[in-house]
């Protein structure tokens, strides 16, 4: 046991020496040095002890300074390392506490598409910890604009981030304010299953409020969600049914969905996913409820 603890202590000392040396190299004037340094930091961030070192030795802020580097590869490695660090709640909390959310949101407007993916993932993890900074930084507006992006992975991650940001009431209200529901409804017909899934999930979250319900109904969400009840992807079916359930809580939504009860009931009997079966049961109960 003692030997094991000594090995752990030696490993931590080794990491400390490595990380402190790398931290100094982040400001090296040679672009190749910065490239290789950020590459190593990304690898270190893939390990628990490496992520701990990021927090313990203050790597996050110096690394984020390279978000403005002239080199695409240096910026990419920096964002990849920060994203990897954020995959744990403690790492995401470190990024939030460093006040990097406004800068990350701003970078979504100007970065190359490949790097946008990593920024969206970083914000996804950070918004699990805290959403207020993102809302105050105009993230909902930026995510909504990205729903029109040509790359399906960006559209999917933007929809997912809207869902994250819509967890608090202020986020739901902001989604309605910036008219995010119209493009989200349009994406329910996207060719990519992940885009359809995350768009339905965002609608499911936003339509918990009365305003969200009526904005979605106005945007023709019901007819598009009904089509997804038979989607080949089980996660799409699940999110569509959950969104249908929230919309059926509005009298107008219930009236429109009554004609589709039989279709939804088939999911209870025929779907291979137990989660979808349960969601269909709940949807039918809410739709057919009588005061």
Defining key terms:
291 residues; disordered N terminus; elongated; mainly alpha; Leucine-rich Repeat Variant
Task: Provide the CATH superfamily of the domain at 8-131.
Answer: Leucine-rich Repeat Variant
Number of strands: 0
Q: Which geometry do the CA atoms define?
A: elongated
- Average pLDDT for all residues: 93
Multimeric organization: single chain
| Beta-strand share of residues | under 5%
CATH topology of the domain at 8-131: Leucine-rich Repeat Variant
What class would the helix/strand composition place it in? mainly alpha
Please report the number of helical segments.
20
Helix content: over 70%
CATH class of the domain at 8-131: Mainly Alpha
- In the CATH hierarchy, the architecture of the domain at 8-131 is Alpha Horseshoe
